[in-house]
Structure formats: C-alpha cells, structure tokens
Amino acid sequence: MRYELFYWPSIQGRGEFVRLALEQAGADYVDVARESGRGMGVAALMELTDGPSLARPPLAPPFLRAGKLVIAQTAHVLQYLGPRLGLVPKAEGTRLWAHQLQLTVEDFVVDIHDTHHPVGAGLYYRDQKPEARRRARYFREQRAPELLGYFEAVLARNPAGDSYMIGRRLSYVDLSMFQLIDGLRYAFPKLMEGLEGDIPRLVALHERVAGRPAVAAYLASERRLPFNEDGIFRHYPELDG
Amino acid sequence: MRYELFYWPSIQGRGEFVRLALEQAGADYVDVARESGRGMGVAALMELTDGPSLARPPLAPPFLRAGKLVIAQTAHVLQYLGPRLGLVPKAEGTRLWAHQLQLTVEDFVVDIHDTHHPVGAGLYYRDQKPEARRRARYFREQRAPELLGYFEAVLARNPAGDSYMIGRRLSYVDLSMFQLIDGLRYAFPKLMEGLEGDIPRLVALHERVAGRPAVAAYLASERRLPFNEDGIFRHYPELDG
Asked: In this structure, is residue B36 part of a structural domain?
C-alpha cells in the first residue's frame, strides 16, 4: 500500500505527527503537496477539500489517502495507521488507550496553536497580539504544566515501565510526545527550561525517540522541515514570558 | 452491559453528546455524578481523574466505564459505543467516516466554548470579556458559517439522501448535529436566525432527531438538564452581535 499524505508543504504543523509515524515505519508514502507533477502539489490537496469530487470530503488537512479511503483528523489518521505500521499493540483496550492519549495530544496542540491565535485562525498574529499575550501567559502558568504533568504521570504509571507511553515498545503516541517536546522547546525555550526538571521521563523519552535510527535519519534529512513562524510551534519571545 | 457515564452533574456540556446516544439506544446506564450513595457522586468522578487507582487515567470528563475499560474523550466514547448501541453502520469505511465527522463536531465544540473562554478555561468569563467579544465576532462571521456550511454540504452529498448524515439511518453523528443546532440556537439566537436559511438540511435534521420517540422522551424528562451559563453553550447577548 502506497499512502498519500496531504498537508501544507511549508510547515510541520499537524501533518508532522503523521509524517513521523510514516517515517519511523519506513512506509511507502508520498507527501503530495510537496511534490510536483500530475496529481501533486497544493492544488491536489485543495481539490479534495474544496472540489466536488468526494462524497465524504475532509474539512481540512492533514488527511491520508489509502486506496479508496480518505481519512482526515490527525489522531484519526494515526489510529488508522497504527496497526498497519506496527506502531500500536494489538490488544483492543490498549489501542483504545493509545487513541485516547493521541486525542489528548490534539487538545494540547489546540492550546499551543491558540497561544498565537486566540481570536481566530484566519487572522494574522500581529492582529491579535494583546489577546495572545494573555492566552500565552495562561498557557505557561496553567495549561502547559497541567498537560505535561499529565503525560509524565502516564509514563510513570505505565505498568511495563517508563521507557514508552504504552507497554514496552515504541508506539505512535511516543512519536507525538517527541514532537510536542521538540516543538515546545522551539516555541517556549524559557518555559521549558523551567519545566523540564518536573518532567524527567518525558525528557528522556524525547531523547530515546530522537535516537531511533529511522527517526534520526528523518530528522537529518531534507524531508524534515524546520520549525518556523507559520506552523503550530512559533517562537515569539514576547509569548515566552 | 451496564455503562457508567462520568460527567459533571449540573451541565449538558460534552457529556450530553454521550447521554443522547445512550438515551436514543435505550441503553442501561448510570450517570454516576448525578446519583448519590456508595461509589456515586462527583467524588467518584474525581477519584478516577485525580486518584491513584487507574494505570490509565483520563485527563478530564466525560468518560465511560464499560466493565474494566475506562474510555475518555467524547468522540472516542461515541466511537466505542456506536457499534454496541446500533448507532453506526457496519462497514469499516463508514465507521471511519462517522468518527471523522464526530472529531469535526469536537473542533466545533472547542470553537463554541472558546467564544466565552478565549484566554483560559480556568478563568471566569467576566475576566475575559473583551477577548470574548473579539473571538465571538470571529466565530459569528467566519467559523460558524464555515462549519455549519461544511456539515450542510456533507448532508447534501450523502449518496443515500439528506435525511441523515451517514447512509439512510440515524447514527450518533445525527444526535450530535441535533445537539449542536439546539445549543447554538440557545447561545446565539440572533446568529442562528441569520444563518438557518443557509442550512435547511441541518434544520430539518434537528427536527427529525427531536421527533424520534426516545429522544423526545428524553428531552421531556428531568434527565435532560436545561442549558445554562456554566456549560459550553452559553447565552451571553453581548456575544451574539
């Protein structure tokens, strides 16, 4: 199965959570909007969200085409790919738990995004700076410690040990935790400097994932886009306290 | 199977999307935090989110206990319950589509919630009124028309007709669409008066769902909590333009 990933070509964004899973698994995939030629590019993406061709259109990227299926919503794409890429255990209860954690990652992503877009995703950051300052402060003081503390507790309570979020092997949830820590370090370096002492297991998990050969090769490749101020994780020093 | 729903006892909130599914199906369930006695009440809910008993703790309600499983995240609970309550078709692709739509409902719920809480969910509305006015305006002008338009288009494109969101039978997604329309009418009556002409299929779906005998009986019962200014859908006239 050759998977087609549809996501904006110039940012990591939500697509990165899917890219990391595909890369870790060595999956056969094409990042459609980053390619050119027939059926490729941003136009191919827009055709599926805005065109009349699909009876079941996605609202927004990222989405995945797998044969005849088109699947949108980041956590949902990962729930679909997990078993197919060997990135989640087999037991039903464990798969449910993985998806629940991924949906909580998604909640965190919304909070991170809204630190710079608290009024509207379609407006520029420069047009919502006062609101962003307040939301970012709330994020730094309340939401980030709460959510990082939650994920740290999940690691600490894993009956199979604290090497991975679920059981004793890498899952797509670990890849997403890597991305969260990596992105937060980029966007909020001061905040993370203050918080990392409280989340030693997540910090170790970040390093463990980064050291996986397939992940390390991906991060060193041109396929890994750099963080920038168009994505979810943006470094605006005035929002870092 | 007796299901135990855990949610705040005084609001519809996110729990209502689950309550509607359980009620439509005539499921055997208990709304734990609304009952008193041993193992009941808000204390029982808090014990699972904040206590040390679970290796896989939910971050927040709503969550469902089904035997040994504890499942959190609204859309995830509905994905679990759907097949068990006969509220989603059997085909895999159709179930994926139902979950994708429900996750988009959840995106909408976040936007609705954040009209009155754009800075932080843990702060009072009165402490974020200026930000709320701006976010609500963006919601009224951009986000609500976009999302309602999307769901209207989904109904229009349903190859089996526009009576239901998926296929030709009621699913949990229809129950959630009912709740969205119902809540938006409560919170934003002026906005909806202006928008409903553009979403005739959703308006008809709302009426169709409200007329289902089990739903009608539930809505007329004391189990259906009234909308109020502690939930997701809050009527603050200053946010309705």
From this structure: yes
